[in-house]
Design goal:
The structure is a homodimer.
Chain A lengths: L3 E6 L7 H11 L4 E4 L17 H20 L5 E12 L5 E12 L2 E7 L11 H4 L8 E4 L2 E7 L13 H11 L6 E6 L7 H16 L3 E5 L1 E4 L2 E4 L3 E4 L2 E5 L6 E6 L19 H4 L4 E2 L6 E2 L4 H21 L5 E5 L3 H13 L7 E5 L7 H14 L2 E4 L3 H14 L6 H23 L2 E2 L5 H6 L20 H14 L6 H5 L12 H4 L3 H12 L5 H6 L4 H13 L1 H5 L30
Helix pairs in contact in A: 7-8, 7-13
Chain lengths: ~575, ~575
């Protein structure tokens, strides 16, 4: 057996059992120990798929074929540790207890080693809904080395769980005087802006406690709203031994003989997961009123990578080859189009923009939309809605006696655009990118079935001020693709004469900070006042936020880049006492 | 103290702490023991609301005020047992461990008695995400009687949980030779067509095992998609001592002296919850191919009550006073309008229908829409889309070179209607009722942002054949409000010349049965073939079902009436290997 250990941060589609097995068979031709992420064999998160009998049947059929193949391979000089599912069935074959496990794959066949012990069940995680937790520690020996095995959450001591697998591992090693050479963690850990740093710090902490290297293998993939960034690594104490890329399938290896052992040190765990640590509002409370933390250059670069990856993933996995964005002349749509261009640089002809001015659209919006598309080399279609709008208005006047004014007249323009956008999408098969941002979503500053339409939302986890920051970064890095005036003009929906966002909303700097306070679950009216915000402004934001729940409920998947996001991990009833009473 | 026990199946909005306390104070004026449902003080399901610090703060402030008030009431001759939340907080006041409990409310103040032990976490339930389970049995004494306390799921021994609170209660009573007089279960148990019968049977079983009456108090309310039907009862063995109404706030009392005790009997628990029992496909497998079970007259009556209640609840809690339905001349929209009329019988002027024919709408559709509105005495607006449709088509021809045909031309009619419907809704503030059914939703036979729009879906949990059955029942019961021809004509989307559903879909009888097999999580291609379905037809349905996930993801809340429904309890990733490969 070879002395090499391989970290494979694989990138497979959910349910692609055949793809996973093909990959394994290929890798096993290379001698050594091969490590794969959590649930490598099935993908993650599977949600209800995991409960489907046909899903389980197909999975086990593939596993059984793999098992036979393995046993026929006499000369296999490699072993793999892979994440997979372990099913129990009822008498009728219905999936019963399901475990999230590590299998050893070798010429002996498939052997169960370990079951995940800490099943995250907060926010976007529902693992206790689907999986049964394991109760045993596992030490795995390869050649003369012994590794402690963990799966993802197992590395996080937490107030959410009653046990600490790291502590149990430590106890076992100490009481049985075992020699440990490393800890292996197979993960499927979702991306957010702070995540990779947190993982590294915690791994380094564990590494110090045990005095051995920590080997971390994370999957790569975009699953609707959740991104897995890979970013696998080996760390020993504070020393990085290996670091893989983010958002990219990659395999790296190292030699076992280079794994050193150091003296274990007592380290007080600083990275315990608590409700408070997970959803700490990202606010600078030194100023009054408090401010949203600014995005650093590193944050912006990460964001850029994440959003491009998320767009490409959804597009590829759902079979899109063309892309469509409605431009307004404003910041959000300009940034979405720019991200699309960066995602599909090689084929800008796959992207098209459509600009649908109404009587309220300014000539500046037209000019800026044209400039943007020129800069990006993207085809722009000009489709004025003035006449259709007037047409509808007239027909309404003939049919209904109520006035056609105010919100009615504003929303119809937005919905007309949504309708035309999807009609164009029907003609070409293009994927429609949504252009809403997190601030807009939070206060319902959009029209349902109008500008809120789309298959995927790239900006729905960025506050408006973060949209500007990211746009400025992109302009800085890529020779100003976005016309400067788009960044400097005041945001407007242009649905009535001289409309400006700031007429109906607080300035975005304050709005975004208030929203971050509300969405973190922690800050109510009282706390926000203490942070220096105006009571009336808070009340207004809370009211808008509470009243727009129904819009968020029918929204498309949002690419998640923050620890607290709208989407799958955000679950608020629509029918309730207006929550602004107790926010 | 009085010898009377009151069952209050209350009907309060989520978060209405003040309303709950007002109700309590009023009821406590009447001497006796007052019983209230699970989470009476807060409402249920709360989802993430329960985690919000301001929510917890407001709740505890109300509780503390109630506590002071209680202690000031010297002459209180009543006691209440109520469901509520019990919060622990971190040092920063963030909700930490949260328990779903029973409190005793008396002149002594508020006293914790019991914490719910079995936290359901399957399908629509996420209780392990939010609550910490209790570990102790509770016996509660009032006057000379002793009651075992349970909360909802505690009465269901199950393969989902590691313990059985009823068994523990039995063990305690037996080993400590205690005298038990009854079992009290405070519930928030969601409605489905089979549920009330299941509850009664299981309660009767427990009653026999203990030889004491089983007292069951369930909440009333419609929470977006989930309905709580009340239907509280007291049962002793197979004898019903008290039965409250369904979908109606109600209080009933009985005298403690009438509670008799019988000899406990060994009864093998027949009503254990398993994955298989919960999601058994509702198929008659005696015929080949299998058929969906027919709805009985009783089922239809329950459905009618449930849907009317669900519509009224969503409307009231979200502040609607007007209602709007787009009629097509077909079955689904006719049934929705009829349900609306039955829901708001006193004020039919609050309801309006709009009929938006295109060039493909038949004159029969016009005639039937008019007849229906005449029968129901509902105002019908006639809003032809022929010219707008032609207008858009022309503008597209001028702007884009791709043909405007096929799906493009079909969907645009549907989206134009969606847009006009919501424009009308903006004029009057009317709630738009969606008209999709479960078969349509399952195969994606609808246009996103077109006929799929709406605030609430009354028919989204009824297969097409069930829609017909319910319509026939309503016609039988209410003097034929729905024109017979609507029931007898072949279903059509009327988006192109001579289009019939059956041109693109299997006959609904078979389609619905195949879908029930798929959605139950249990039946794949192989099993469906064994049940007598045609392989090609199955493949076609699976393909349509898999490809339409993205439409369901942006759909409105569906009133849940079956054990397995689309909506909150249905969670399938969009990005995945096409599941029809393994279905």
């Amino acid at each position: 057996m070879s002395d090499r250990v391989f970290l494979h941060q694989t990138h497979l589609t959910i349910g692609d059992f055949a793809g996973a097995i093909l990959r394994l068979k290929k890798d096993l031709l290379t001698p050594g120990l091969h490590l794969y992420p959590e649930l490598f064999l099935t993908g993650y998160p599977l949600q209800d798929l995991v409960l489907k009998k046909p899903f389980a049947d197909s999975y086990e059929r593939h596993l059984s074929e793999l098992n036979s193949w393995l046993k026929s391979q006499k000369n296999l000089d490699a072993i793999a540790l892979v994440g997979g599912l372990r099913y129990s069935r009822t008498a009728h074959g219905v999936p019963d207890k399901i475990e999230n496990v590590i299998y050893e794959i070798s010429s002996q066949g498939i052997r169960w080693l370990y079951t995940k012990r800490l099943l995250p069940n907060y926010d976007i995680f529902d693992e206790q809904k689907y999986f049964k937790a394991g109760s045993e520690t596992c030490l795995y020996s390869y050649q003369d080395k012994t590794f402690g095995l963990l799966i993802c959450e197992d590395m996080w001591p937490s107030t959410f769980h009653q046990m600490d697998p790291c502590l149990d591992l430590k106890t076992k090693v100490t009481t049985e005087s075992l020699k440990l050479d490393g800890i292996i963690n197979l993960s499927a850990s979702p991306f957010d802006l702070q995540k990779s740093e947190k993982r590294l710090k915690r791994a380094s902490e564990i590494s110090q406690q045990f005095g051995v290297p920590f080997i971390y293998v994370n999957r790569v993939g975009g699953e609707d709203e959740i991104l897995f960034d890979g970013s696998s690594f080996i760390v020993h104490g504070e020393k990085s031994l290996l670091q893989l890329s983010s958002f990219k399938e990659e395999s790296e290896s190292f030699q076992l003989m280079n794994l050193e052992i150091s003296t274990p040190q007592y380290v007080d765990p600083k990275y315990e997961q608590t409700w408070e640590s997970l959803f700490q509002p990202r606010l600078d409370t030194q100023t009054s009123p408090a401010k949203l933390h600014h995005l650093s250059t590193i944050d912006c670069e990460k964001l850029l990578q994440a959003l491009i990856f998320g767009i490409k993933e959804y597009s590829r996995k759902n079979g899109f080859k063309k892309y469509l964005v409605a431009l307004s002349g404003g910041m959000d749509s300009a940034l979405v189009l720019t991200l699309l261009k960066l995602a599909f640089r090689e084929n800008p002809e796959q992207i098209e923009a459509i600009y649908m001015p109404s009587q309220f659209s300014s000539s500046l919006s037209t000019k800026l939309s044209e400039e943007l598309c020129q800069n990006l080399n993207i085809k722009l279609h000009y489709f004025p809605i003035k006449f259709l709008h007037a047409n509808i208005k007239n027909t309404f006047h003939q049919t209904f006696m109520e006035p056609f004014a105010g919100l009615t007249d504003e929303n119809v323009q937005s919905r007309l655009r949504g309708m035309l956008l999807y009609t164009r999408s029907n003609q070409t098969g293009a994927m429609v990118l949504n252009t809403s941002n997190k601030s807009e979503l939070a206060v319902g500053y959009s029209t349902q079935y109008g500008d809120s339409v789309g298959a995927l939302s790239p900006l729905g986890d960025l506050y408006k001020s973060e949209v500007y920051a990211l746009a400025a970064y992109i302009n800085h890095r890529f020779n100003q693709p976005i016309p400067a005036e788009i960044l400097s003009r005041g945001p407007s929906a242009e649905l009535r004469e001289n409309q400006l966002d700031q007429d109906s909303l607080p300035p975005y700097e304050r709005l975004d900070a208030i929203l971050e306070g509300i969405l973190s679950y922690r800050l109510g009216k009282k706390e926000l006042v203490e942070l220096g915000f105006d009571e009336n402004e808070i009340a207004k934001v809370l009211q808008l936020y509470t009243r727009s729940e129904y819009k968020r409920a029918q929204f498309c998947p949002i690419i998640k880049v923050q620890s607290k996001s709208f989407g799958f991990g955000y679950r608020i009833p629509l029918s309730k006492i207006s929550t602004f009473h107790f926010e």
